[in-house]
Amino acid sequence: MLNLLAIIVSLTAALAWLNQRLIRLPTTIGVMAIALVLSWGLQGLAWLGLPGLEARAADWVARFDFNELVMEGLLSLLLFAGALHIDLDRLRRYRWSIGFLATLGVVISTLAIGAATYGLLRLAGVELSWLYCLVFGALISPTDPIAVLGILRKAGAPVDLELRIVGESLFNDGVAVVVFTLLLGAAAGSEALTPGHAGALFLQEAGGGIALGLAVGGVAYALMRSIDEYRIEVLVSLALVLGGYALALQLHVSGPIAMVVAGLLVGNKARESAMSETTRAQLDAFWELIDELLNTLLFVLLGLEVLLIPFAGWQLWVAAGLIPVLLGVRLVTIGLPVMLLRETLGFRRGSARILTWGGLRGGISVALALAIPSGEARDVLLTITYLIVLFSILVQGLTIGRLVARLLAPE
């Protein structure tokens, strides 16, 4: 395992250097693009009759359990790091719109995308059950702010738009995982999909996640307040994330939601009354570095996953048909709270379009697709998921900056 880790870290460093030196794309998008080109080059060699390198690379990539790595490792750290820098007072101002998008918005998106997926697959001659189509709707609904956040800042996007995208993504990741778990259990036949069962599971996962997040965040706050030594306080925050997420898995409550709540608590209450200036600076620097390094590593692996995913022409057309559906559903769910709360919250001109195009899909969608049991459903949905994620990151991610500049330019 140490050899595998050494190889991926070394490769990530090399690709990040190459991007910074020659290409100068946003780091996460740049390393993923280079990894994709590298993967396609290896596949090209195999097509030319030299399969040895591709086979060895695919065998190496297969040793990484992408689902386990993301869902039981990186996700906890990334969500905590994201929540740590959210101003809770400012977040409260957008609580209704963010709450709508992270709950009803996820449900509406799951149903609409599931229905579109069912119809497009039937047109392609693929019979997939309605429940598995809803599973796909749930896994593709959560948005990933990581790649777009740096671009928005570089383009000079207002803080309120950054807060909306990040705040929504932090919470809808947790809710979407709960919905996905419920639907996958029903599709696989292990659980009954009844309103009572769904409500109980949601209460256990989401309510339990909130309670656990408050508990572990409260313990961390008390420990930090009792001392003034930034090294130990940073270590406490790391223990909170790793230990808290492991505990969430054991208790069968939502680890993502727990980490978001704990991050908000530490990032606001503990920052305000339990940390010295030195601790604040060191804690921020530590988690910003963790955030950047793990995201870069994640996007390299995302680019290399193409070596393991089988592609067929009809899957490309289904994915292409679903992309406008995803964007349309997001525009509707974004547009509704923007219209209703325009006067109250003072949304800017073009906010709905920026928030729609800025809702990228990322590694969590691929990780959830990999959690589907082996079989035809997984093969179909994993490939479609990967294609949509590629479009989202490479097309939306590389054009959102220009959209922000154009829509928010002074008239």
Any descriptors?
single chain, sodium, Na+/H+ antiporter like fold, globular, cell membrane, 411 residues, 2 domains, 19 helices
Structural class given helices, strands, pairing?
mainly alpha
Under CATH, the topology of the largest domain can be stated as: Na+/H+ antiporter like fold
Residue share in helix: over 70%
Tally the helices: what do you get? 19
In total, how many domains does the architecture comprise? 2
Beta-strand content estimate: under 5%
- CATH hierarchy: architecture of the largest domain: Up-down Bundle
Number of separate strands: 0
Largest sheet: none
String of helices and strands: HHHHHHHHHHHHHHHHHHH
N- to C-terminal separation?
Answer: 56 Å
Give start-end ranges of low-pLDDT stretches.
Answer: none
Q: What is the CATH top level name of the largest domain?
A: Mainly Alpha
Mean pLDDT over all positions: 82
Give the C-alpha Rg: 21 Å
Shape: globular
GO cellular component, one term: plasma membrane
Keywords: Antiport, Cell membrane, Ion transport, Membrane, Sodium, Sodium transport, Transmembrane, Transmembrane helix, Transport
Protein name: CPA1 family monovalent cation:H+ antiporter
Pfam families: Na_H_Exchanger
Question: Would you mind describing this structure in some detail?
Answer:
The chain is mainly alpha-helical and 411 residues long. The chain folds into 2 domains: 1-63, no CATH class; 67-408, Na+/H+ antiporter like fold (Up-down Bundle). It is built from 19 helices and no strands. The longest helix is centred in the C-terminal third of the chain and has 32 residues, at 376-407. The N and C termini lie far apart (56 Å).
